[in-house]
Amino acid sequence: MKYTRFSHAQENTVQLQSVGHCLGTPAAELKAGDKLMWNFGYTSEIVEIVKESKSFIFVKELSGGNIYERRLKKDRLVVRLEK
Questions:
Q1: Cα separations (Å) of 36 from 13, 54, 59, 76?
Q2: β-sheet bridge partners, residue 25
Q3: Is the pTM of this model over 0.70?
Q4: pLDDT, position 4
Q5: Mean pLDDT by 10-residue block, N- to C-terminus, for the chain (83 residues)?
């Protein structure tokens, strides 16, 4: 899995702890099968888009063998891993 890392803050970057500045994608663009990276290099995979409202997107994600539901604001930047 690949991700784009920057040495300093730029437009559309997210600061992840112990990883650095990474290119971010708005949560509204997520779809099932996408892999995300969080602080300290933890990863999760989007299993399903549960529902969308005007401002939020609700997703089910697989992380550490468990499935969790997460609510993300559509304009929130998340780090999506490339295949």
A1: 14, 22, 12, 13
A2: 78
A3: yes
A4: 80
A5: 81 93 95 97 96 97 97 97 86
Written as six digits, the tokens of 33 are 């099968």
> What confidence score (pLDDT) does residue 5 get?
81
Residue 73 pLDDT: 98
Scored b (16 or more CB within 10 A) or e, 52-77 reads: eeeeebebebeeeeeeeebebeeeeb
CATH number at residue 10: 2.30.30.30
* Range of the structural domain that residue 60 is part of: 5-81
> What does the longest C-alpha to C-alpha distance in the chain come to?
36
Burial class (CB in 10 A: 0-12, 13-18, 19+), 27: buried
Quote the number of domains for the chain.
1
